[in-house]
């Protein structure tokens, strides 16, 4: 894996497209999408962005199997996709770009890769980064997590550009749970704002939500300091405070009692249920996560969820 080596990206949605634009600054990129036409230069999920000449588009996965393969698919699609294409993908360096917990298995993206492709070297790219910012060339810092440190160093170098600054860690569980759980808390933050509860309530949700993220992640084997990094606190702050976030916007609509376009990817909905199940299995109390899961599944209203949170016994911070 040399600097400037070709990169394949599977998934031509907002994030796959944005990464293709950014990584084209350092070498050839092949972008595969299930609906892509060969030669297509504009992506429906990434408006106003034309792919640079270094990006080749294809509808044949075989064309995108380069030394590094980024999997820019939603978390709930990853397992089925990998199983379907395991024969082509196993044995490669596979970098998941998804932020979520698989609802069926309770696994994060790296474990999902390992289950479907046991001979692959799995990693995850996460951290605070809106696709529309990356595609515009705005400065962005990400976290690359891989259990194999030498591979983490190689991937860090291969995926960094002058404006895309990639940090690395071997704490895979911490990095991927930070990215997954911040989406759940962002729905809660959006719902609080949408319901008119105000910025003070949002600050409480961010802070207590961060405590929940850390509790679950540490219980699953993460290092607590990973949660204070880009992939945890960094992404939590971004997603809970910007209408650029789909999870936050979904929460806004939920809180305001308004409809939300079901075609938009909102990772926090499935992940809230998956995280609530993990918490039950671990014997942990994650009240905000449980409230988001209940809200999303129609088991609670915004008013009953708030009442339940406020009625909890007083405790030490
Ligand atoms: N959009 C953003 O700003 C960022 C997104 N991410 C993460 O990237 C992941 C992907 O999100 P986006 O690209 O934004 O979503 P998106 O909704 O824009 O695109 C998803 C793409 O995956 C494709 N897809 C879905 N299921 C598939 C399947 N079974 N087989 C093949 N292709 C399939 C869709 O056709 C679509 O092109 C999510 O986990 C998200 O959290 C991470 C950082 C930033
Ligand atoms: O993960 C993201 C930014 O880091 C994108 O957030 P949304 O999926 O909520 O749009």
Automatic annotation (TrEMBL):
Q: Where does sn-glycerol 3-phosphate bind?
A: 99, 127, 129, 182, 235, 245-247
Annotated active site: 182
InterPro entries noted in UniProt: 6-PGluconate_DH-like_C_sf, 6PGD_dom2, G3P_DH_NAD-dep, G3P_DH_NAD-dep_C, G3P_DH_NAD-dep_N, NAD(P)-bd_dom_sf
Q: Where is the Glycerol-3-phosphate dehydrogenase NAD-dependent C-terminal domain?
A: 171-306
Alphabetized, the UniProt keywords read: Cytoplasm, Lipid biosynthesis, Lipid metabolism, NAD, NADP, Nucleotide-binding, Oxidoreductase, Phospholipid biosynthesis, Phospholipid metabolism
This entry's Enzyme Commission designation comes to: 1.1.1.94
All copies of the Glycerol-3-phosphate dehydrogenase NAD-dependent N-terminal domain together span 7-151
Q: Catalyses which reaction? A: sn-glycerol 3-phosphate + NAD(+) = dihydroxyacetone phosphate + NADH + H(+); sn-glycerol 3-phosphate + NADP(+) = dihydroxyacetone phosphate + NADPH + H(+)
Q: Where in the cell is it found?
A: Cytoplasm
Picking any one GO molecular function of the record gives: glycerol-3-phosphate dehydrogenase [NAD(P)+] activity
Q: Where is NADPH bound in this sequence?
A: 15, 34, 99, 131, 246, 267
Superkingdom is: Bacteria
Pathway info: Membrane lipid metabolism; glycerophospholipid metabolism
Task: Name the HAMAP family for this protein.
Answer: NAD_Glyc3P_dehydrog (MF_00394)
State the function annotated in the UniProt record.
Catalyzes the reduction of the glycolytic intermediate dihydroxyacetone phosphate (DHAP) to sn-glycerol 3-phosphate (G3P), the key precursor for phospholipid synthesis.
Entry similarity comment: Belongs to the NAD-dependent glycerol-3-phosphate dehydrogenase family.
Name the chain's protein.
Glycerol-3-phosphate dehydrogenase [NAD(P)+]
């Amino acid at each position: 894996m040399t600097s400037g080596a070709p990169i394949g990206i599977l998934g031509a949605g907002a994030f796959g497209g944005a990464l293709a634009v950014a990584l084209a600054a350092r070498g050839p990129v092949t972008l595969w999408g299930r609906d892509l036409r060969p030669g297509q230069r504009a992506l429906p999920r990434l408006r106003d962005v034309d792919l640079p000449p270094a990006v080749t588009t294809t509808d044949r996965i075989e064309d995108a199997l380069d030394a590094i393969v980024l999997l820019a698919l939603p978390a709930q699609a990853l397992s089925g996709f990998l199983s379907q294409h395991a024969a082509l993908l196993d044995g490669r360096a596979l970098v998941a770009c998804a932020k979520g917990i698989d609802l069926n298995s309770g696994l994060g993206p790296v474990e999902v890769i390992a289950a479907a492709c046991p001979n692959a070297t799995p990693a995850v790219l996460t951290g605070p980064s809106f696709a529309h910012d990356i595609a515009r060339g705005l400065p962005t810092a990400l976290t690359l997590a891989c259990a194999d440190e030498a591979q983490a160093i190689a991937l860090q170098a291969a995926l960094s550009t002058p404006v895309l600054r990639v940090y690395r860690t071997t704490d895979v569980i911490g990095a991927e749970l930070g990215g997954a759980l911040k989406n759940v808390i962002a729905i809660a933050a959006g719902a609080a704002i949408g319901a008119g509860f105000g910025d003070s309530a949002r600050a409480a949700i961010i802070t207590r939500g961060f405590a929940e993220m850390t509790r679950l992640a540490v219980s699953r084997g993460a290092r607590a300091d990973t949660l204070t990094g880009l992939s945890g606190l960094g992404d939590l702050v971004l997603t809970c405070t910007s209408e650029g976030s789909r999870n936050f916007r979904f929460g806004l609509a939920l809180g305001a009692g308004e409809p939300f376009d079901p075609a938009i990817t909102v990772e926090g909905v499935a992940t809230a249920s998956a995280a609530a199940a993990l918490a039950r299995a671990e014997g942990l109390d994650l009240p905000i996560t449980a409230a988001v899961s209940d809200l999303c599944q129609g088991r609670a209203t915004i008013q009953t969820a708030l009442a339940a949170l406020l009625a909890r016994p007083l405790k030490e911070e």
